[in-house]
Amino acid sequence: MKNNADSEFRSEIVKNRRNFLKKLAVFAGSSGVLASMPWWSPLRAEPPGSSALDRVRLGIIGVGSRGRKLMLHLMETPGVEVAAVCDDYEPHYNRALDLTDGKAKAFKDYRKLLEMNDLDGVVIATPLFEHARMCIDSLDAGKHVFCEKSLAYDFAECANVVKAYRKSGKVFQIGYQRLYSIPFLKAKGYVDSGTIGKITQIRAYWHRNNDWRRSIPRPELEKKINWRLYRKYSCGLMTELASHHLQVVNWVLNAHPISVVGYGSINHWKDGRELYDSVNVVYKYPEGVNVIYDSMISNRRYGFEIQIMGSEGTIEGEKGKIYSEHPPTPPAIVQLINELERDILDSVPIGGPSWAPDLELDYKGKLLAPGWSGEETAIQLTAFAAAIRESRPIPGMMKHAYDGGVAALMGQFAMEQGREITWPQVEGLQI
Amino acid sequence: MDVFHHGFYGMGTRFELIIPGIDFVEEQSLSESVERLVLGLETKLSRFDSASAISEINRRAFHEPIPLDEELWEIFSLCSEYHQKTKGAFDIAILPLINLWKKALQGESYSEPPNEKITSVLEQCGMRHLELDFTGRTLRFHHPSVEIDFGGIGKGFAVQKTLDYLQREGIESAFISFGESSVSVVGDHPTGKPWPVGIEHFFDRGRSVHDFSMTDASLSTSGNALVKSSLNETPHGHVISPFTGYPIGGYRILSVVSESPIEAEALSTALLVTDLVDRDKLISSWFRGKALEIEFTLENRQHFENIWTYNYEK
Prior knowledge:
Chain A has helices at 4-28, 31-36, 65-75, 90-99, 110-114, 128-140, 155-168, 182-192, 222-225, 237-253, 331-341, 360-363, 376-390, 397-417, and strands at 56-61, 80-86, 105-107, 121-124, 144-147, 172-174, 199-207, 259-265, 278-284, 290-296, 304-310, 313-316, 321-324, 348-351, 366-367, 421-422. By secondary structure, chain A is α/β, with parallel strands linked by helices.
């Protein structure tokens, strides 16, 4: 059991979060935000009161490392109650139950959890191969769904989730946090306003240096715990990491990929794993824009970044910075160039004390959102809860889930099959 | 005529290179080389970069003599030369003094530091605490507070290196502006006449107060006025006298034209902090170029300029 100090601490967090949400509501209500990011619309609502009517009751399916983090966030989200947890792995099951002080109902089979009539929605944080089945069953059971990225294991599964969602009329949210990041929102604004010119290329990468392996208590649990390394359960680096950046690309370019080619290999961690530890793919998007993506887990010098490159500037989404291709040209230089072009000799009034950029930051990149402390997961979960309260689907969300999920799979298939994979056309699919 | 233009950020400001009438493909790689050269020097000379050579010197030179590479030796020798020639008016080692004023004049508590404080800081800094060993090519500080700041010469040094490079590449006509305070021309204007380079009026922007005719020459301007880089008025460019420890008064700018951008830059600051009556004596025997000082005043919304010119041409 938790002591009193701990629960006081938690209620303090909830109070602070309530203030944060009030500010967020004002921000989300501004027209610029909703025009480019309609999925912010649930956040316009005033923070919920503390009555039982305002409370959204959620069940967490899969409380491994990601599921546990989401659960902790949800426990700090005003108007949310973690009413049920589910995991078929005993240590996780016990850990989750303990976190709720034993208040939540606990299950080992998610289908039993779905039978709870007083549950509004579920949060699914299970291995990729289980996403589609769990999403569809949950939607069919009348539950609102938050599913971790990436959407599903193959093209058909992705389409089936969309169909189940359409049929259900329920809220669906995918774990693409960047959709709720202020720096990325600003980045999208700068791209749309033409500040960095025409986007001509996007380059993104995600590099780590570890084996991506979790320790296992017993050998027979290898595939259950280290599912990310085996093809039957996952699509590896593409669905676990690349999927995030591909979603940003789709958003920035207002498009999904046309096709993709690439190579993948296991060149470092030769420990019996089946999924690549190094991936290199090139996506073709409309208007001649190519997106170059690579990911590896044997060097972390360059970390992770998405570089949005335009004719007038560059945005580094992860660092949250924007760079101009050139400093603003002094007026006297503009005049000089004009006159030289027309063979005119005239005085150039340039001499003066040294020019300095407005902000030192202009010089080495300007921060897109100064002071941003990375609250996107909290905002995202708040949006999910608010949408459930309004019982209104989140606009634009399923399209991001589908386009990002399919794009990640295309990359994996291109490498595996050694050929160009084109965007799958699914007849009659309405997203 | 085709005119190539390449602008980039460097040394805390902007570098503009203009080359009239040469092949575009050639110019592209040329401008890339210039950018690499300037940014390479910045990496070495910037005290804002903790990994730079100068930062290392600032950290270690009080404790042990620091060996200087050829480039650093060159710039320190030049600084020493101009420090002597200007009788101490040019000084790269008064950073503690600059920081004292910067701190005092920043923010809401705008107030002058107390006189005793200024005197004590003044004693702790200055190039007299620097020892250059000409045989071993090393540098040592004799006071722990000493710090080097190349702000008064770094741009001139970078422009000189750029001019050397352009000459090697056979460029016969070019215009360089480094932050507008360092302007250099290669050869003549394409019309065959000298480049007419103006000093911009401080209040009436875009108007030239004075024109210099320049061929293979460099212009440097120092000022204590507040520079507006845009609508934000950025306080910038306080010039502190290494003799008195106080900033110089008025809205004043001082421009120097010389064959050498390094000399122009060193002198533009040095003359600004030297009394009007002492200037002639200080430079007439060795300086070959032109200098100009403008004091701007604003009264009843009318601006006035007082201009002093100095001509020491060959």
